Amino acid sequence: MIYVKKSEPAPLCLPIEKAKKNGDYKCGDVLLRTRDDFRNKCYICESKAPTTINVEHFKSHQGNKDLMYDWYNLFYACGHCNNIKLHLYDHILNCTDLQDLVDEWIQYDIKPFPGEKVRLTVLHDDERVRNTVELLEKVYNGHTPLKTIEAGNIRQNLLEEIRDFQGFLFKYYRERLEQTYKENLKREIKYQLSPYSPFTAFKKWIIRENPVLQADFGELV
User: Fold this and answer.
1) So where are the chain's domains?
2) 67 near 36, Cβ under 8 Å?
3) What is the distance between the alpha carbons of residues 189 and 167, in angstroms, rounded to a whole number?
4) What whole-number distance in Å separates Cα of residue 204 and Cα of residue 148?
5) What is the distance between the alpha carbons of residues 64 and 88, in angstroms, rounded to a whole number?
6) What are the residue ranges in the chain where pLDDT is below 70?
7) What is the pairing mode between strands 119-122 and 106-109?
8) Helices (H) and strands (E) in the chain, counts
9) Is residue 68 a contact partner of residue 13, using CB atoms and an 8 Å limit?
10) Which of 28, 31, 33, 17 is nearest to 65 (CA)?
11) How many CB atoms lie within 10 A of CB 48?
12) Prediction pTM value
């Protein structure tokens, strides 16, 4: 998870749909705006351009129309993550709240070897942090036979992203690089650490854990 800023104002269609008996919270441009706000990434696993898309209620509405049509309660999620979260994880870190340091209170790590599982470490002793880690453990590592297969597919994409990111870093620190080439690599590394890149939280922790990388790219994390 990384911080995401929700766009404003709320879509005008939401109060109109809320007044209906059988309204639709995915009305108007809700779907497109949530996609753009979350950079076409699932807010939980950070997979880019998911093939199964849900407009997810951060706090499950349980029939409560205020929660059902609240713009700030509508998040962009993949089917894998939404089906795990459901109403079971209402008390987790909110990635749209600047006060919740979603990528600093949790350490994200995966070793670049096939079959490795994601390791998540609680760095801020708080119930919502622990709940978030519990959810992410299921998302990345699986907890049922079906979800374990889906989680394995996500980890494969994650490993490929980490491999490519580390490749850019290795090239950047090679000796006697042409300055133009080095600047291009720096721009690519900057993109990889931006909200638009998949699995940004993991990439940020690669920077945080290395003093040399922290010195050169710390301002980006």
Assistant:
1) 13-85, 112-117+140-220
2) no
3) 10
4) 25
5) 16
6) none
7) antiparallel
8) 9, 4
9) no
10) 17
11) 15
12) 0.94
Residue-wise burial string across 179-192, b where 16 or more C-beta atoms lie within 10 A, e elsewhere: eeeeeebeebbeeb
Q: Kindly report, residue by residue over 93-150, the tens digit of the pLDDT.
A: 999 999 999 999 999 999 877 778 999 999 999 999 999 999 999 999 999 999 999 9
Report the pLDDT value the prediction gives residue 179, as an integer from 0 to 100.
87
The CA distance from 218 to 18, in Å, is 44
Cα distance between residue 190 and residue 63, in whole Å: 42
CA dist 72 and 45 (Å) reads: 19
Residue linked to tokens 């998949």: 198
SS3 state at 184: helix
Q: Which residues pair with 56 in a beta bridge?
A: 75
**Do β-strands 119-122 and 74-78 pair in parallel, antiparallel, or remain unpaired?**
unpaired
Q: Six-digit token pair at 195?
A: 């909200």
Amino acid, single-letter form, for residue 98: L
